[in-house]
Amino acid sequence: xxxxxxxxxxxxxxxxxxxxxxxxxxxxxxxxxxxxxxxxxxxxxxxxxxxxxxxxxxxxxxxxxxxxxxxxxxxxxxxxxxxxxxxxxxxxxxxxxxxxxxxxxxxxxxxxxxxxxxxxxxxxxxxxxxxxxxxxxxxxxxxxxxxxxxxxxxxxxxxxxxxxxxxxxxxxxxxxxxxxxxxxxxxxxxxxxxxxxxx
Length: 199
Known about the structure:
The protein is mainly alpha-helical. The protein has six helices and four strands, in the order H-E-E-H-H-E-E-H-H-H. A two-stranded antiparallel sheet has the order 1-2. A hairpin with a 2-residue loop joins strand 1 and strand 2 (69-70). The chain is globular and about 60 Å long. The model has no long low-confidence stretch (mean pLDDT 85).
């Protein structure tokens, strides 16, 4: 029996999640077409069973909100699955060419590196609000990392000469290396710096 590979090209064998807190929440299950059509949507923690590649594609379609406003809403951000699917495939090919690594492994490591361990919440005492550091739930850590990866890629390519696939590949590679040139890594370090200051 032939091995199932992501995009029928990249194997997920041997891809391990090193972060013990995320091990149960990042799925590296092999799928030829990472598109389930949200069949688990009514179940709690359904996202943990969905391939991390599919979750990344879903984030590309709707990169999220920034500063309380909708971030981007044109071209690849219109919710068209085939466009995001092709964009991810092109980005993976670029990642493989530049790093000589399995791009699925690069994505998993980039998500691990970009996942913040703590975040800031606001608490109120006597009418005054204070920031307080709190631990970040594993599911939310992954969601934040995916959001920052996709937003960083769109910042690098929107209204610029950089091609979207190149921008996504660069963001993944920089996050894979834990470089501050990655938006996800820079955001994580900034957030954890704020948490240290608000203990």
